[in-house]
User: What shape does this take?
Amino acid sequence: MIRLLLLMLLACLSMPVASATLHQSFDLQVPQAPTAVTIGGQRQLVYELHATNYAGVGMVPTKLEVLDADAPEKPLASWAGPTLLARMAIAGTDQSPDTHGMPAGVQAVIYVEVTLPAGTRVPRQLIHRLTYETTTAHGREPGDVAGGVVAVDQRAPVVLAPPLRGGPWLAIYDASVPRGHRRVMFALDGRARIPARFAIDWFRLDASGRHVRGDEQAVTNWLGYGADVLAVADARVIATRNDYPESPTLKNPRHPLGEGSGNFVSLDLGQGRYAHYEHLRPGSVRVHAGEHVQRGQVIGALGFSGDSTGPHLHFHVSDGAAPLAGEGLPFVIAGYDVLGDYPNLDDFDAGRPWRALPAHAAHGRRQDMPAPSAVVEFPGK
Assistant: This one.
């Protein structure tokens, strides 16, 4: 019965009211089902909607609505106009569509984050309604299409121990950055994937917000350089690299695709989940493939190897056994304290203090993924 109602809803959403004339429009697909994850205290669904223009003419997306299939009368989220276009990237590029729209045959990736209100259930299934304008000889004609039906993955994200000790540590990631983790797709085996969908780059700070002492160009002057990197769970080591050289200064050229991770460790967490640590210091990796590690065990040291703009730890979880394999999966950290955040990362670059969390606010987080640009402290020193 529910399936029948859903099919009727899709037909109603996509059928023009005044005319039964059929016409081509967008194909909507969600390649990777979302999982609800708590980020900075808010439950979110984080995923991508792929929209391909099959109309044979140019089309301009004007509004996107995300609907709960069981309660479609009120959208869970919506974006329109320039705000929507800024969430989009033409597949294989870092360019967003402009107001002239998408030519025929072009695919765009729409980056979606839906915040679920506290106390509400996780939707069973999502539907997407995309409103658009078609470019014709007579001007622009409005239309809409519903699709991209996807079942929400009801599994809980994996709970991990911190990958580092103490702090302060700045968590850098941002879905809006053109070449940020989430906007970099890899098509290595006949399918495009986003391995680092939930990746975080961890930078060490001091109490004043500085990330370096002395000459910033010398990587050993960065506060995080050489910090112990820890196993986030009892796990099996499946791959490592320990001999990739690193530049002694920030003049770091681009590296071949397969070398961008630099020195790394990959752990099998079980249940098809893998943890990846990248840009480790040469010679610092203490574990070998096949070895079993314990939660909190030192496995390497933070470094600057591979494609890195400054010494930091890149960490992500995916369903692939190698750093560039598989789809990125959400994770939460068992416990940490929030100290504040950087509303503008220019302040971080300049070594200025972060915005402190209000004194009355709760600092402790449990089973939570740090929010973008959060400054946190982990247990230990």
Q: What stands out?
A: Residues 2-151 form a domain with the Immunoglobulin-like fold (CATH 2.60.40). The CA atoms of residues 338 and 376 lie 4 Å apart.
